[in-house]
Every structure is written in structure tokens, then in C-alpha cells.
Amino acid sequence: MLDLLKEQQRLNLTEISNRIEVNKTTVFRLLHTLEEMNYIIKLGRDYELHPMLFNDIQAVRRTIKWSKLQALGRLGAECGKDLFVGTLHGRDVIVRQVYEANTGQMVDRETSGSVPAYQTAVGKVILAQLERSEQLELFLSSIDPMQITDQTFTDPDLFLRHLEVIKQQRYAADYEEFRKGVQCISSPVFSGNKVVASIAAADYSDFMPKHEMRSLTRKVIYAAEEITKEINTYVNAME
Question: Mean pLDDT over residues 176-195, rounded?
């Protein structure tokens, strides 16, 4: 049953019963026992592996309701910018909008699908937390001349040094590297000592003048630290 959940990530009682060909009553008893032992967690009608027990960063990301995090709401209200959350999937980053500046409301909206992590602030700030060999592999496998702007990194050594700086300063900036006319500031979010995502504030370049960037950067870094605390409080409560 644990192997099944590891493979399928999340299943309900009926699905598990059908997959292992055991009646629901027996499966329910087994699931209850596994839940009591903290091998699995129940989310609504579904079951999945306990994220911390199995050190499963993917599971941690799936259980986080980003648009419900208080620190993100406060950041949006303070900076008046659209806010996003980025998560690494292979060599790409998937970006979701979580705060809409025009309405002042928290949202949960996928943007343009997956994009190469090395081209965006939300991706670079995650890459900066990985081992150097993994950084290089992801960079070399992602280069696509058709997606490069004048500001995009193309030299591997320069890019790796850039990631070192990002890790030290705790934020990444995107000055039209992915999309012309758009700038972005991003900072990493952790579960324990592992990076699980990044948060970002973005806007058109005309509305992000340089004299405001320093203040915005401090706010994004602080919010990321507060979100890390929120996430770890949530994870610890499941243990």
C-alpha cells in the first residue's frame, strides 16, 4: 500500500481498494493504522505518504495552500505587486500567481506553464540552493536559443558564480531575462533545510524603478522567511 501511494502520490479509499484488490473495510482499517503510525496523512478523502517521514519535498509542496499563507497576503498588501510562487519540476519551474495587485485579493492561478528555471528569478533562487553539479546539469540541459533575451545568461561559469551570489544574498532578480519589460524579485522558501519553492513580486519595468527595488527586495526576503516559519510550523504539526 505504501509503495502504491509512493507511485501514485495521492489516492482515495476506493482507488486504493481497487488497485490492491482488497475490500474497503480491510483497506480502511489498514489506512487508519498507517495514519496513526504517521506513515500516511489524510487530506479530505485522499491519502498520501507523510511528507517528513519519507523526506518527500514533492509531498510537502502539494499539501501547502500557498494562497492561504498569511505572510503572502501581508506582502501583497505592503508592496502592491502581483505575487507568485515557483516550484522546481525537473529542469523547469512552474509558476502560480497567488496575489493579484489590481484586486488586492489572494488567488491560486497557474500562469504560462513551465519555463526553464535558469531564465527566471523564481527558478534561479531555487537552483542556488542545489549542489553545484546539479546546477550545471540543469543549466546545460535547458539552454534554448529561441527563448533567450539580451539579458539571459548563456555562459555556464558565469551563471554558476551568479548562483553563488544569489545564495549569499538570499534573493534573485530578473531584469527582463525571461520577458522583456518585466522585472521580478524572488526569495527561497524552505521546509527544514531543503528548498521547496520561491516567492516573487513582479511588475512591468516602468512600475519598478531602481530606487524602489531595495525596499521591495527587503520585503520579499522577510516574507520568504516568515513563510518558511509558517510551513515548518505546519509540517511539525503533522509529525
Answer: 85
- Residue whose C-alpha cell is 490492491: 20
Mean pLDDT of 179-191: 89
Backbone torsions φ then ψ of 90, nearest 5 degrees: 70, -125
pLDDT (0 to 100) of residue 188: 98
List all residues 6 or more positions away from 46 whose beta carbon is below 8 Å from its beta carbon: 10, 11, 12
Mind listing the pLDDT tens digit for each residue in 81-134? Answer: 999 999 998 889 999 999 999 999 999 888 867 788 888 899 999 999 999 999
Helix 24-36 vs helix 13-20: crossing angle, to nearest 10 = 110
Helix or strand holding residue 85 (H, E):
strand 82-89
What number of residues does the chain have?
A: 239
Range 22-36 burial, b when 16+ CB lie within 10 A, else e = eeeeebeeebeebee
Angle between helices 70-79 and 210-238 (to 10 degrees): 170
Asked which of 29-33, 168-172, 176-180 is least confident by mean pLDDT, the reply is 176-180
Q: What pLDDT score was predicted for residue 153?
A: 72
Which strands, in side-by-side order, build the sheet including 194-204?
105-116, 92-100, 82-89, 194-204, 182-191, 172-175
- Report DSSP state, residue 96: E
- The pLDDT of residue 104 is 94
Q: How far apart are CA 71 and CA 83, in angstroms?
A: 11
Residue 78: CB atoms within 10 A of its CB come to 14
- Cell numbers at 146, concatenated: 529561441
